[in-house]
Amino acid sequence: MDRNRLGLRIHHSGSSQSEESALDLERNYCSHPNLLWSSPSPLQPFASGGQHSESNAAYFSWPTLSRLNDAAEVRANYFGNLQKGVLPETLGRLPSGQRATTLLELMTIRAFHSKILRRFSLGTAIGFRIRRGDLTDIPAILVFVARKVHRQWLSHVQCLPAALEGPGGVWCDVDVVEFSYYGVPAATPKEQLYTELVDGLRGSDPCIGSGSQVANQETYGTLGAIVKSRTGNRQVGFLTNRHVAVDLDYPNQKMFHPLPPSLGPGVYLGAVERATSFITDELWYGIFAGTNPETFVRADGAFIPFAEDFNMNNVNITVKGVGEVGDVHVIDLQAPINSLIGRQVVKVGRSSGLTTGTIMAYALEYNDEKGICFFTDFLVVGENQQTFDLEGDSGSLILLTGRDCEKPRPVGIIWGGTANRGRLKLKVGQPPENWTSGVDLGRLLDLLELDIITTNEGLQGLYF
């Protein structure tokens, strides 16, 4: 795997906000702190640039300053105990046990030290160390802080350790990544592309499929995949984000392509049948949650069966600009880290068309001002200093590029990012960059009891 090709120019999904369910706890706007206790900046919602926009729920709330104001003595004692008993690096050497090699091992180490990491960071993820903007092959827990400085300028209790050791002596590096917030968010620009591919996704093509624009009366986004229900009469429909498809006041929201007739040209596709926003951690994340009694895992998906009068001859299974895709890539936590981190991905969305990127990290965990823990699966960055997605691309299918002539395999869907509300400083001499966030497609399909359809034969066998 060529890691040096990664310039790590991180961008965002540009998702905007609609009303969601009571579990959409990220709508609690709050301040997030500077790690070293400087004054916080208010995190505020931004206004949509128009009446009809993509849903606006996709961003992160960071903990308030009050969450970090525990007694200095408690912090000092905790760091002291870690350094005496767990971190032999304080004696001038690294831990002597086995270095972590799997996603599971990294997640377990993080859970083992979740108390200290939650207190002294804005969030954490797992991946590889980043040096001078390039992804290395050194497994690490990524720790996001508001200001990164040399340890020479910090007191003893303010320094994060260079390595962490988990149960059984398995250990990994700690990589501190700067997260900063710059002023009051401005409205996300309505960037427009006018390529043949993008125009087709927005309605000039006679067929729809993965990447096509879908909309209701209030929001628009991207069709992720053509799917079938595992239950009932095996309905055929499509998958997109919940925050694209569902409004709190209209749970059975009707969806159109490219627009509702009241707003422009378009046809009725169907109404939302089932959707999910957040799930608790008992099944997928409970054993890694450490001291967090509740971890809300981002799911953010909606299933819309095609209406009975919709012409299924207008449905295209292949992904425009990509071609045929393979089976869903199921994430195996016991697989080597490089089975996921550092992998190249592509996506096709109604705003930015075909773009490429790299999975920079997995399992982002962060806490809001009330101490509630949130979890999302992927942090993706665009390649070659290009934006991975733009506003309106929420719901786009994330595809792992094929290896050894394999077809690209779906692994997730985009749901949002930090947009201009927060940025990561990864490379000296480059401005802070935004990231794109995605959810695990396999988990989402199981939650909604769906299967993806990847061949025209499979579609015809179900519907015609």
Automatic annotation (TrEMBL):
List all Basic residues biased stretches. 1-12
Q: Where is the Nal1 N-terminal domain?
A: 98-177
Region (Disordered): which ranges?
1-20
The record lists the membrane-crossing segments as none
- What InterPro entries does the record point to? Nal1, Nal1_C, Nal1_N, Peptidase_S1_PA
- Where is the Nal1 C-terminal domain positioned along the sequence? 190-457
Specify the protein name: Trypsin family protein
Species in which this protein is naturally found: Populus trichocarpa
Q: What is the lineage of its organism?
A: Eukaryota, Viridiplantae, Streptophyta, Embryophyta, Tracheophyta
